[in-house]
Amino acid sequence: MAGVNRRWYSGMATTEDWWAVWLGLIMFLAGLTSIWGWDLVGWMAKTGTWVWGDFSWDKALKATGYQEWHPLLSLLVTYLVFTALTCLGAAAMKLNLKRFFAGWTLLFVMTWAVWIMGHEAHFKASVNEFDKYGLSWGLSLGGGFSYMLALVVGLVIGNFFKGFAEFLREAAKPEWFIKTAIVYLGIKIGLMSIEAASFTFELALAGIAATFVAYLLFWPIVYTLSRRVFRLSREASAVLSSGISICGVSAAIATAGAIRARPVLPVMVSMLIVIFAMIELIVLPGFYTAVAPNQPIVNGAAMGMTVKTDGADAAAGAILDELMRANAEANLGVVWQEGWILTSSIVTKIWIDMFIGVWAFLLALVWVYKVERQPGQSKVGVIEIWHRFPKFVLGYLLAWFVYMAIATLGPELSGTATQGAEVVEGPMRKMMFMLTFVSIGVITDFSKLKGMGKLALLYAIALFAIIAPIAYGVAWIFHHGMMPPTA
Amino acid sequence: MKADLEVSLIHDGTYWIVRHPTLEARGRTLSELDQDLTQRLREKGDFPASSQVTVFMGFDYDTIPTWIRQYAYHYFNRYVLLRL
């Protein structure tokens, strides 16, 4: 039974969820060795700001640790290391290795090309840096411009060069890349916790509220709307409600599985979710920045409750983080630390993710023992909760808690531990974000909305008239007044 | 939970189908599937008449399109008690 999750350890070597943990922990451990004075991650390349007409590789690119290396050597080693690791994962997951390798290589090259372009000073430099780069004007978009450019490139390929998109599809795995990035983010949150422990605790606590809202408020409202107004079947209503209200495709699949729906149902809903998540990702960061420029944490948390799929949420959170910080620096005269807005959107989402197994288990009990009652015939195993638990969260929490433990139990090690950690949670995490942006665009084909009629209309109404406003209100109630530490 | 029989479960777009090296059963609904499986087991005679058989049906995730696997990798498994 090759494709059957039979045991608790099923899928550890063969699923993207687990491979996000492995890729995350390999670099987490490599970074941690800086405690013993080693630098196993200094080969990682990172981008630098450059000015149009004055391009040089030394300015646009550099190694994070090995300063004597030529920037292109650093980029080559970065390519080789990540190619080896991702191809190892692809082989274990039984993907077509040749197609994965070719697609991955093209994605990698496009990602870095876009990333370097996005760091041109007229796009990226803040107003305070204009003199440094000799600029008379600039858009001051920060790192957010690179993310938006990556998304645009991906969307153009996905919608206008469909043959090329199909070729890239084997390697374009936004959820895998973003889950790996989220494990790296665990390191960042660990480091941030060292500096602002109570704030991190507040964020985590407020995120719990989002879980209750998603499951106990959004779900029944959307379910009732589907049944009463749109006259959908019980099965379709339940799957759609979970997809819109909870955590997108994962929730749609989990719910459909829990109520034993025909697989075609979650597949159709999943297509809707992926496409609408892209629309949210494009619209919401700019919208929130424009209407509430002084509510960074509220905006981040609202994003976590509104944007479905982890990839789109993390991507939207990253753009929001960059846009809001650049805007605050230019217009509010305050420089917020990078990462807190992104963290508020991801922490909220991760809470929601973690409880999908429990929710699906409860739904399964209701369906098996009440809705389709067959006394004494069918049983629901508790292990179904574990099978649905998002495993990448384990890597994220481990990284977070280890760095918190170092700060608490061995504060004298914090300095050396931070050296390696900064490479992993900085350039490596951002590279995985960039790969996510290109990939998420590549796999999004808006023409798939054709023929979805009633379902697409219901999704749009529920998302923009119910989920988004309520999410914002709840985020405001629980996060109002919370501000990120200043840089 | 211990099962007397383990089978894989798929959906082909129309029918739920369970497969085992020595038998196959199908049904438009899961109830129909259970009835068909019960009938097949009676015909095979591997279990005593009037006995209760616990069947583990593990959903074969290869049924779900590849692109969805990055979002979720589990559908559902069933334990069913059949009275022969």
Automatic annotation (TrEMBL), chain A:
On the tree of life, the source organism's domain of life is Bacteria
Main subcellular localisation: membrane
Q: How does it sit in the membrane?
A: Multi-pass membrane protein
Query: What InterPro entries would the database entry show?
Result: UPF0324_pro
Tell me the keywords, alphabetical order: Cell membrane, Membrane, Transmembrane, Transmembrane helix
Q: Name one Pfam family in it.
A: Cons_hypoth698
Name a GO CC annotation attached to this entry. plasma membrane
* Entry keyword Ligase: no
Q: Where in the cell is it found?
A: Cell membrane
The record's similarity note reads: Belongs to the UPF0324 family.
Protein's name in the database: Sulfate exporter family transporter
Organism (species): Nitrosococcus halophilus (strain Nc4)
TrEMBL record, chain B:
Q: Which InterPro entries match?
A: DUF5395
What is the protein name given in its UniProt record? Uncharacterized protein
